[in-house]
Amino acid sequence: MPALKPTSFRATITWLGRVSPDQGLRSQALQTAFASFDGIEGEAHGGATRPSCSRVLAQHPRGTEIRNTRQLSIVSAEELAKTAQAIGLDAIDPEWIGASMIVEGLPDFTHVPPSSRLQGPSGVTLVVDMENRPCILPGREIEIEAAGFGGRYKPAAKDRRGVTAWVEREGDLSLGDSLTLHVPDQRLWAHHEAL
């Protein structure tokens, strides 16, 4: 029995980017990208492993080498627009938030189940790790471009920051590609509410 179910939900890639190691958090826009097992080539967040950060302090001391499940930051165009509206901007440039990819067409994207897959026409397959919790770093970049608005980003992006992902199968990504959502064939944990 398959552990993942293909769905009829599709996401269209509307923006691609890469954070260069010398650019801080800012992304550079791309037309196409090859997603290798280490992520997008030249990406500051790439590699098979990474040093642990504040998001996993309950599991590992900061700086511990762990598997890199944060190779990409994928954000919904619809959720990004809602975040911009909530802070009073017409739009938020994906470059400002360090996005790897902006997708359009998946409802409640930030909350797709962990371990879901996004599979493109080249066969490239991205595994959703989990929700990407908002932090203050995108707000700093927004502040540079729109003074007075950066501090509003973190609370406005709650439940709308997208997901982190890693590459399960290598392949090409291009603007306009349609990605199929595959979800785990698993019910919600019975004790989830106790958390």
Task: Kindly list the characteristics that best describe this protein.
about 200 residues, mainly beta, seven-stranded mixed beta barrel, 13 strands
Question: Can you give a write-up of this model?
Answer:
This protein has three helices and 13 strands, in the order βββββββαβββααβββ. The chain is 12% helix and 36% strand. A seven-stranded mixed barrel has the order 1-8-7-11-10-9-13. Strands 4-3-12 form a three-stranded antiparallel sheet, with no helix packed on it. It has a two-stranded antiparallel sheet with strand order 5-6.
Q: What's the N-to-C terminus distance? A: 30 Å
Alpha-beta content class: mainly beta
Largest sheet: 7 strands, mixed, barrel
Low-confidence stretches: none
- The secondary-structure element order is EEEEEEEHEEEHHEEE
Say how many strands there are.
13
Averaged pLDDT: 95
Number of helices: 3
Radius of gyration: 16 Å
The largest beta-sheet arranges its strands as 1-8-7-11-10-9-13
The 3D shape can be described as globular
Helix content: 10-25%
Strand content: 35-45%
Question: What secondary-structure arrangement, pairings included, does this model have?
Answer:
Elements: E1 4-19, E2 27-30, E3 32-36, E4 39-40, E5 49-51, E6 65-67, E7 72-76, H1 77-87, E8 101-104, E9 117-119, E10 125-131, H2 137-145, H3 153-156, E11 163-169, E12 171-174, E13 178-184
